[in-house]
Amino acid sequence: MSLEMERYEDWLKRMDPQDPMYEGLKAVAGDEAEIRERFAQELSFGTAGLRGKLKAGTNCMNRNVVARATQGLADYICAHGKEAMEKGVIIAHDPRHYSKEFSKMAAGILAANGIKAYTFDDLRPTPELAFLIRRMGTVSGINITASHNPKDYNGYKVYWEDGCQVSSDVAAGIYDCIRVLDYFDGIKEMPFEEGVAAGLIEILPPSRDREYLDKVKSLAIHEGDELDLSLPFVYTPLNGAGSIPFAEMLKERGFTNWQIVEEQRDPDPNFTTVGYPNPESPAAFAMSEALGRKTGAELLMATDPDSDRFAIEILNDEGKYIPLNGNQTGYILVNYVLEGRKDAGTLPSNGAMVKSIVTSTLSSRIAAAYGVEMWEALTGFKNICGRIGELHDRGLTYLFGYEESVGYAACEDIRDKDGISAGMLVAEAAAYYRKQGKTLFDVLQEIYAGYGYCNEDEPNLILEGLEGAARIRRMMEDIRREPITSVAGRPIVRTIDYKDGYKGSHSGGDEDIPASNVLRYFLEDGSWFAIRPSGTEPKIKFYFYAFGESAEEAKAKNEAIKKAILERVQAVE
User: Fold this and answer.
1) What integer pLDDT is reported at residue 124 of this predicted model?
2) How far apart are CA 513 and CA 499, in angstroms?
3) How many whole angstroms from its chain centre is CA 512?
4) 454-570 has the same fold as 41-204
5) Nearest to 102 by CA among 48, 173, 51
């Protein structure tokens, strides 16, 4: 009998028949491919913890996997002593199936292990959790969320006391505690209500929400008469956690002419109106566009289900809504923050920003023009915000961090991507420039004209399952075995393979980047591209950035480079 079949039979015998996923486990008897998918391996920590489809199995998200992970985290915290246990853990969740149940179970497991657990009365944005970890001084945080994934996914993000998602070292320590545990035995748990009655579980009051919103509002660059607060725009939370805090923020900032997509206002674990709740996808804006055309909106904004990702559509000079990718929104935010702080006299002489290694270097040019250093980090905000302590050590002041996958961290007190604060700054920027007779489209064109026309494209290949993962590995092996030395008739002048780590340089000292499965290629004119398998999704991702003297030239160059690289990679079977 194969290992995965042995695991399957073991789960059939030991799983609680009352678990809603038990019948689904019984139903796949005889389906060798499905059993292999569920049991050939275990979920492992990626750039955002555990993430997988909701079903029974070691390679899936279910009660047993979540309970085992939480017991492992509890053991890791207990090993740090009584003080860490008393500091406690904050637990949040998104609107997905089982999110609330998993969060209450996690609280009960922590409480049974003598660790104080803090929860919310309902779903909350991921960035609020990240903020409150440092604000309250807890040792850790847990968020039950699958971010922007489809409805059949869920996930388990773990944060540490610095307010960032756990670093690789901490994740490794937690995993060492998890992997020695059984999925069914040895897990301590008490009922949620018993934990509350014993004072081991505390439901956080609304005043904590107020603290988070006050921090977001404190990030304002311009206020009052500097803004046209009658700016017409539309917001959608995509049936996620953003509805209440985003609306509250807009009202308190004084915006008077905005609409919310009613069908997407309330939480919906099936994401019925959108299907794939990823604001990066233009399809997610279909209902926003319809409402925008009806109300004359100049800006459309969206957050994903846990409200950490944020994306926009704007009107172009032809009056049509166009989606901005994460890089383009990043250009606007980087430029707006630096321009505003310079005008206000609050731009420090030792300023620094952080972007991921696969995010456009056009923002580095903008930063340099203001005398601000742009540091790089691996993808994921545990890496981007993880730079903050290092920047402090080198006498630098953190101003902003972002990555191309529509994530933005506007201050060091919220050490994760934050769709609420990003939304506030974009709405504010649009209102500020509108007062000057300009649109965000106008501003983006000015940025290209001033710093170089860049064409950005980020295609990916979705290859699901174990076979898909194996093919992605073969693709990366093939490229390393036969290196790319030219593309579309243009020579590669520099290659960075991050598999063994990389050391760059800054005026503040060396910039160490840990090992990662990423390849990056540079052309003579500043154009470049990168290839990276995703750590959380069944994808291999590509990032193309071409510079030109005009938008047309940059686009043509990028299309040629993209075509050549995708053909090369897809030829690998």
Assistant:
1) 98
2) 10
3) 22
4) no
5) 51
- Active-site residue, 99 included: no
Strand partners, 156: 50, 144
**Element containing residue 119 per DSSP (H, E):** strand 117-119
* Strand pairing class (351-356; 460-462): unpaired
Burial class (CB in 10 A: 0-12, 13-18, 19+), 428: buried
Kindly report the number of other CB atoms within 10 A of residue 133's CB atom: 26
Left, alpha or beta for 254 (phi > 0: left; psi -120 to 50: alpha)? left
Contacts of 411 (CB under 8 A, 6+ apart): 215, 219, 398, 421
How far apart are the C-alpha atoms of 472 and 463, rounded to whole Å? 8
- The separation between the first and the last C-alpha atoms of the chain, rounded to the nearest angstrom, is 29
What's the fold here for domain 454-570? Answer: TATA-Binding Protein (3.30.310)
pLDDT at 509: 55
**pLDDT tens string 411-443:** 999 999 999 999 999 999 999 999 999 999 999
Q: What is the CB neighbour count within 10 angstroms for residue 162? A: 18
Check pLDDT > 60 for residue 508: no
Cβ atoms of 208 and 122 within 8 Å: the answer is no
Do 90 and 73 form a contact (C-beta atoms < 8 A)? Answer: no
Number of H helices, E strands in the chain: 20, 24
The CATH class for the domain spanning 41-204 reads alpha beta
Contact 202, 116 (CB under 8 A): yes
Q: What are phi and psi of 378, to 5 degrees?
A: -65, 160
Q: Is 60 exceeded by the pLDDT of residue 556?
A: yes
* Domain at 213-448: CATH architecture: 3-Layer(aba) Sandwich (3.40)
| Residues 124 and 152 sit within 8 Å (Cβ to Cβ) | no
Position 511 scores a pLDDT of 75
Residue 464 confidence (pLDDT): 86
The confidence score (pLDDT) of residue 450 equals 97
Say which of 103, 140, 147, 364 is annotated catalytic. 147
Structure token digits, residue 51: 């993430």
C-alpha–C-alpha distance, residues 22 and 33, integer Å = 18
Looking at residue 444, what is its pLDDT?
98
Write the CA distances from 454 to 328, 449, 524, 552, integer angstroms: 10, 10, 14, 10
32-39 helix and 465-481 helix, angle to the nearest 10 degrees: 70
E strand spans, 422-573? 453-457, 460-462, 486-487, 490-497, 502-506, 509-513, 519-523, 528-533, 539-548
Question: Structural domain boundaries of the chain?
Answer: 41-204, 213-448, 454-570
Q: Residue 466: pLDDT band by 50, 70, 90 thresholds?
A: confident
Cβ–Cβ < 8 Å for 287, 273 = yes
